[in-house]
């Protein structure tokens, strides 16, 4: 009986042999040559240093100079060639999809085909925000993959990867779809597919197939504390990858729409503080000046629950949807404001290059004590503004100490600037005291704080 049950279970497992046989020819190994220069500085004139050209052949100093310095006495370029990743052919005339980080800063890209041919590839274009790159080799009649629809995937469905982990070409691993629409901190514009397919260094840029032999994703990331596979991997949905490839092919760069808000998740406490039945949507913590959102009238505290007719279940789901909307198009945005749903039309613009965040100063010296809340604050004077690099128009109070209690549980930290409580602007200590006094005991109150030049909401539970 046990043997019969085991045979029946084995017969239910998928057979990948045909899929691998049919699709391996369209998968490629990618290696790059990167030029790395030492610091470019001319050799100093040191008294007593011999002229290398006057030294005999074989002299250690002359050998050193010949090997590492050019004829002008500057460090000579060094080259490092290594197998970095995988890719797959999407057109018979030689267009190849891979990850941006596979070919980043490469001076030469070599594509190795299944038939052992090695072809030099041209980088058509790359998109850092999605970590995708498009290559081109001079060849015709190449084998290609078929593309499917990641949107049709079900969690638990079998998938298979072909790639070159650690340089072992055409390795095959299989697993299931673990989740869809994952948002990672460094790639906000990609709704990743999460799988348990074994992905390791060298798999990057390779295809992820469904059981029909269609590519439904581009293997891109792993989640690991060791550097190797630990059961969680991520792939870029093929629909997004092909859209990026088409833009790179036609113009060499990717156009992406921009709303102009800083958002955060709606936690259970924040949902309660905003009078929501359950946590959902993307909470607007900051509206950037002169952005499409600012021009349309979006405000901090708005909770975006729909964008362009699509539900927004969480903050991570909003950026990919906005990014893929048309630049210059007008999109209806449904927000919750003061407990009511409002529809606001926003005309989207081109996403600008992101700017780095300045470091945060850490002020000290408490002036106002809120012992029951476990925090100390002080007025936002000129000295504090300068320390925190704040504009003169910013109003609020600075958190100078957090000792525990509700303030610590809310996530407040020294250096935070409280600018609003509920929808009441905070101009100083008296305004903060009044706003907190008006909050019912035991309620959850939304605080708008400025941290690292970026606004966010925190839910403060009143004693």
Structure, explained:
The chain has 463 residues and is of the alpha+beta class. It contains eleven helices and 28 strands. The strands form five sheets. Strands 22, 23, 24, 25, 26, 27 and 28 form a seven-stranded antiparallel beta sheet that branches. Strands 1-2-3-6-5-4 form a six-stranded antiparallel barrel. A six-stranded antiparallel β-barrel has the order 8-9-10-13-12-11. A hairpin with a 4-residue loop joins β5 and β6. The termini are far apart.
Features:
463 residues; six-stranded antiparallel barrel; alpha+beta; single chain
Unreliable stretches (pLDDT < 50, length at least 5) are: 37-47, 355-367
Strand percent estimate: 35-45%
* Distance between the ends: 64 Å
Biggest sheet layout: 7 strands, antiparallel
Count of helices? 11
Q: How many β-strand runs?
A: 28
Helix content class: 10-25%
Shape: elongated
Oligomer: single chain
Structural class: alpha+beta
Mean pLDDT equals: 83
Return Rg in Å. 28 Å
């Amino acid at each position: 009986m046990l043997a019969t049950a085991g045979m029946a279970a084995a017969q239910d497992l998928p057979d990948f042999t045909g899929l691998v046989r049919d699709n391996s020819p369209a998968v490629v190994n990618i290696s790059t040559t990167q030029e790395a220069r030492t610091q470019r500085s001319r050799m100093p004139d040191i008294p007593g240093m011999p002229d290398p050209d006057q030294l005999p052949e074989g002299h250690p100093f002359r050998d050193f100079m010949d090997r590492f310095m050019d004829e002008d006495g500057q460090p000579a370029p060094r080259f490092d060639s290594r197998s970095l990743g995988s890719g797959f052919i999407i057109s018979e005339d030689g267009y190849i999809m891979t990850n941006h980080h596979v070919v980043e800063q490469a001076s030469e890209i070599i594509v190795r085909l299944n038939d052992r041919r090695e072809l030099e590839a041209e980088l058509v274009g790359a998109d850092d925000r999605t970590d995708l790159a498009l290559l081109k080799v001079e060849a015709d009649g190449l084998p290609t993959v078929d593309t499917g629809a990641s949107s049709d995937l079900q969690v638990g469905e079998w998938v298979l990867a072909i790639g070159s982990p650690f340089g072992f070409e055409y390795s095959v691993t299989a697993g299931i779809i673990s989740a869809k629409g994952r948002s990672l901190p460094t790639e906000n514009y990609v709704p990743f597919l999460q799988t348990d397919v074994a992905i390791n260094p060298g798999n990057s840029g390779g295809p992820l197939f469904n059981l029909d032999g269609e590519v439904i994703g581009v293997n891109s990331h792993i989640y690991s504390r060791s550097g190797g596979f630990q059961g969680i991997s991520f792939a870029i949905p093929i629909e997004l990858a092909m859209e990026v490839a088409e833009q790179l092919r036609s113009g060499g760069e990717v156009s992406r729409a921009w709303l102009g808000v800083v958002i955060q998740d709606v936690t259970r406490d924040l949902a309660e503080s905003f009078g929501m039945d359950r946590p959902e949507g993307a909470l607007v913590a900051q509206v950037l000046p002169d952005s499409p959102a600012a021009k349309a009238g979006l405000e901090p505290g708005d909770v975006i629950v729909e964008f362009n007719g699509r539900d927004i279940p969480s903050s991570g789901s909003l950026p990919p949807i906005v990014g893929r909307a048309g630049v210059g198009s007008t999109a209806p945005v449904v927000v919750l404001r003061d407990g009511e749903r409002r529809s606001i039309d926003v005309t989207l613009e081109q996403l600008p290059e992101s700017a780095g965040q300045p470091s945060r100063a850490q002020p000290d010296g408490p002036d106002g004590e809120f012992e029951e809340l476990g925090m100390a604050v002080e007025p936002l004077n000129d000295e504090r503004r300068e320390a925190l690099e704040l504009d003169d128009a910013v109003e609020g109070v600075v958190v100078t100490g957090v000792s525990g209690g509700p303030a610590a549980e809310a996530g407040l930290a020294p250096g935070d600037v409280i600018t609003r409580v509920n929808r009441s602007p905070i101009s100083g200590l008296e305004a903060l005291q009044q706003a907190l006094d008006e909050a019912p005991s035991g309620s959850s109150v939304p605080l708008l704080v400025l941290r690292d030049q970026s606004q966010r909401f925190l839910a403060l539970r009143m004693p």
